[in-house]
Amino acid sequence: xxxxxxxxxxxxxxxxxxxxxxxxxxxxxxxxxxxxxxxxxxxxxxxxxxxxxxxxxxxxxxxxxxxxxxxxxxxxxxxxxxxxxxxxxxxxxxxxxxxxxxxxxxxxxxxxxxxxxxxxxxxxxxxxxxxxxxxxxxxxxxxxxxxxxxxxxxxxxxxxxxxxxx
Length: 166
What we know:
elongated
């Protein structure tokens, strides 16, 4: 009899875990190469890359049969780059996303992030109109890497662009 109770308890625990699957708030890291893209979730601006989004805030779950389902669109836009729109589903939201943007050679480079009203905005400029010195921009870039807001690959790419402008 105790074996049946143990199996019933295990099945109950598994069923509870599956039913709560859609109720969890999932953080997803979102990065672009190059950084500084405006992020739109279902057409609404939610920030600038690199950033972390809480899935429930932008892609609420709804029940379909026995499963929880999330869907919508995620659009990434950056001056000088071709916008990218992705269809979002449960599988897409299970991992962090890094998206390579197709940019023109004269696309503005990232100069410095700033937070306005809780949303990160990124100032952009070409090499000729950059407001910060290379040393300031490299220090800011190092700070972003130290906070794990950019990947090592993004760090190397942006650092190379800054140094190439010297």
